[in-house]
Structures are given as structure tokens and as C-alpha cells.
Specification:
By secondary structure, the chain is α+β, with helices and mostly antiparallel strands. A four-stranded antiparallel sheet has the order 4-5-6-7. Strands 1-2-3 form a three-stranded antiparallel sheet, with helices on one face. Strand 5 and strand 6 form a beta hairpin. This is Cell wall assembly/cell proliferation coordinating protein.
């Protein structure tokens, strides 16, 4: 568990009035989600999932896993959203959606762009644009950095 993740979790707990979570996801659901997506979640994201499932914090909605029936789920289910985008716009399989800005940009775990701990960085993705047109700009080095920044921004 990283320092950034601990800080973010503490801020979330201290600002309970902004929190709407889905209850922690079981290990079985997390394992099933990884199998369906064909990836391994980073440790801090697994902690987030087991603690919150998915999280609405003020006006931000961080995607997660909270039910086993991924096909009949919806936002903010990361498996449902990712599979949906793969189907609709042929989103590459190395991307897993974490957050939708509402402005046409999605923040994704990018399994083609790994940090020093061999975990996916968080990069931008614009659905509907060809893979050649994607910049996949690195926004955060890891999930914990993303979570801490999102939570801090929302409080400020």
C-alpha cells in the first residue's frame, strides 16, 4: 500500500459527506473482473476495490467493481464500461477505464505503458478516435497518484 493511497483513503474517510461508495468488492468478484478483462489490477486499485467497490466522491465518479454480472451492469462498473467501449469503438484491450471526464476523454489504466513497479500508468483515451490519432498522454504514474489527485481536487 503506497503513501499516496493511504493519504487518499484518509481524505475520503475524513470527508464522509462527499462519499457514495458501493461497498467493498469481494476477492472473488475482483478475480473474475481481472479474468474477464484479461489483466491483473495494480495492488492499490485492488485495495480500492475491496474497500469501496466503486466511488462517487462529490462530483467525481471513479469506476470500480461492485457486482458479478458485468454484462448487465452499468456506470461506474469498470468491467462493463471497458467491455462496452471495446465493443462500441474497438477500444484497445490494453486499456481499462477508470474515469470519464464527461468531456469526451477517459482516464485508463494503460497496460502498454508501465511504471517502475511494472504497474499500468494512467493515460488519456478519446473514444471514437483511431488508435493512430490517440496520444495516450500519461496523466498519472499509478492509480494511487490518480486517486489522491482526484480526491484532493474535489475537496479544494
Amino acid at each position: 500500500m503506497s503513501t499516496e493511497y493511504n493519504k487518499a483513503k484518509k481524505l475520503i474517510e475524513e470527508n464522509e459527506n462527499l462519499v457514495d461508495d458501493f461497498g467493498g468488492a469481494s476477492d472473488d468478484i475482483i478475480k473474475k473482473a481481472q479474468a474477464v478483462l484479461g489483466i491483473q489490477f495494480p495492488k492499490d486499485y485492488e485495495l480500492f476495490l475491496s474497500c469501496f467497490g466503486a466511488l462517487t466522491f462529490g462530483s467525481i465518479e471513479i469506476y470500480g467493481v461492485f457486482r458479478e454480472d458485468f454484462e448487465n451492469s452499468g456506470v461506474p462498473d469498470t468491467v462493463w464500461a471497458t467491455l462496452n467501449e471495446r465493443k462500441l469503438v474497438n477500444m484497445p484491450k490494453h486499456l481499462v477505464i477508470l474515469y470519464n471526464t464527461g468531456m469526451g476523454e477517459m482516464y485508463c489504466l494503460n497496460y502498454k505503458d508501465l511504471n517502475n513497479n511494472n504497474e499500468p500508468k494512467i493515460t488519456s483515451y478519446f473514444p471514437g478516435f483511431s488508435e493512430d490519432a490517440q496520444k495516450n498522454e500519461v496523466l498519472y504514474n499509478n492509480f494511487a497518484e490518480f486517486l489522491l489527485d482526484m480526491v484532493t481536487e474535489e475537496i479544494n
